[in-house]
Each structure stands twice: as C-alpha cells, then as structure tokens.
Amino acid sequence: MELTTTAAPRNRSAARDADGMAVASFILGLVGLLALNVILGPVAIVLAASALLKGTTRRGRAFLGLGLGVADLVVLVAFMSADSTLSWSF
C-alpha cells in the first residue's frame, strides 16, 4: 500500500467565488466613499449584483457593498452639484 503526500487539486466553486465578490464589493464600496468614488462605486455595484445572482452565502456583505456603491455615486453627485462642475475637486 502506497501513501501519496500530494493533495488532490482543489476546484474553486461558484459559491466561493461569489463570496469573494461580496467581500470585494463591500471593501471597494467602503474605500469609494473616501476616494475614487466615480470608479469604485460602479465596480462595487456590479460585484455585489453578480455575487447575489450567483447565490453567495454572504448576502449581508453583498447588500452592504451594493448600498455603499450607491452611496459612492450619491456622494459624487452631491459634490458635483455643490461645485457646479462635472467633477469634484479638493
């Protein structure tokens, strides 16, 4: 009887990928409130939506990422309307 010391290759499941997308959407939405909200907001929204469609087990994080992505865009619009410009500046 021979024992092998190598592990079998692991297959990444769709649920694991969806969980990663949910966490990434949360982090990007959170960072987007501070900087680059014009880019990170839509990315957080897309990642959260795709994580929810793929059936993530971290639905709370996906919904938070979705909400933060929308909040990023709301903050961007608020700054743009306050400056009366097409982009906000410091």
Descriptive report:
Keywords: Membrane, Transmembrane, Transmembrane helix. This is DUF4190 domain-containing protein. InterPro entries: YqfX-like. With 90 residues, the chain is mostly helical. The protein has one domain. It has three helices and no strands. Helix 1 runs antiparallel to helix 2 and helix 1 packs parallel to helix 3. The longest helix is centred in the C-terminal third of the chain and has 25 residues. The chain is elongated and about 75 Å long.
Order of helices and strands: HHH
Class computed from helices, strands and strand pairing: mainly alpha
Biggest sheet descriptor: none
Individual helix count: 3
InterPro entries: YqfX-like (IPR055338)
Transmembrane segments: 20-50, 62-82
Protein name: DUF4190 domain-containing protein
Organism: Streptomyces ortus
Short characterization:
Keywords: Membrane, Transmembrane, Transmembrane helix. The protein has helices at residues 14-32, 37-53, 59-83.
Describe the secondary structure blueprint for this structure.
Blueprint: H1 14-32, H2 37-53, H3 59-83
Helix pairs in contact: 1-2, 1-3, 2-3
Transmembrane segments: 20-50, 62-82
Keywords: Membrane, Transmembrane, Transmembrane helix
InterPro entries: YqfX-like (IPR055338)
